[in-house]
Amino acid sequence: MKIGVLGTGNIGGSLGQKWAKAGYEVKFGARNPADPKVTALLESGGATASAGSVEEAIAFGEVILIATPGGSVQAIVEEHGTTLNGKLIIDATNRMGEAEVSAVSSITQAAPNSPVFRAFNSLGWENFAEPVVGGTQADLFYCGPAEARAMVESLITAVGLHPVYVGGLEQVRLVDSLGLLWGALAYGQKRGRRLAFKLLAE
Question: What average pLDDT score do residues 182-200 get?
């Protein structure tokens, strides 16, 4: 599977490295692919990791992870909607302080034939880099179209997290609320960023 990762920050970098090490072909999309930070990502990711422009990463990937700053997503999808259309897209961005935290509505408008998922937005990146917290594997709650969920679950599992599907895109606000809960606990209650969620059931 080929994955285009838009964003080379903590979230995009952590996930892209994990996927490359798991054997997926990963191309990071960056404003400056020659940046030393991007070079370090490639060295860590190994032979299956590469970098290029945002346009090149989108063209490359069968799956596109959007992990850019939340405020930049609208411009990206408007510019590259034709190339994005039909690819599986994962929205990992957060627009904190806005009424709609996710960029799902903007993405689905720009790429109406794409299966779009909301995932990797509800935990701090440290928990992607090391998904076992206090000796327990963390869960990742996500949503999106059921017919394409197997591919997303394989990517969540490759990171080392346990996937928990909560439904279609009608559950975006539910997944977003977990991100807000994480922030309230990590920062408001000063519990720290190494904090994750676990579903318990019989």
Answer: 97
